[in-house]
Amino acid sequence: MRYERLPREAKEREQCTLTVGEDGMRLFRAPLAADAPALLRRRPQVEVLRQVWVQ
């Protein structure tokens, strides 16, 4: 997301940040879900996403 596209008001920026974080966590958890294919868990992209979220 480009900074100039962020909402100007602090409360709206905070909501945007929370939405992005929630979406990211949903993406991170999906391949780790019990019903997700095992192959998906072993994808290198999933490990990269995990490392980014740790940072």
Q: SSE order in H/E notation?
A: HHH
Shape: elongated
Total beta strands: 0
Give the number of domains: 1
Could you give the distance between the termini? 18 Å
Tally of separate helices: 3
Major sheet: none
Strand content: under 5%
**Compute the gyration radius: what is it?**
14 Å
Approximate helicity band: 55-70%
Sheet/helix structural class: mainly alpha
Are there runs of 5+ residues with pLDDT below 50, and where?
none
Mean pLDDT figure: 87
Explain what the structure shows:
- This protein has 55 residues and is mainly α.
- The chain has one domain.
- The protein has helices at 10-29, 38-41, 44-54.
Defining traits:
55 residues, mainly alpha, elongated
Short description:
This protein is mostly helical and 55 residues long. The longest helix is centred in the middle third of the chain and has 20 residues, at 10-29. The model has no long low-confidence stretch (mean pLDDT 87).
Write the layout of secondary structure elements.
Blueprint: H1 10-29, H2 38-41, H3 44-54
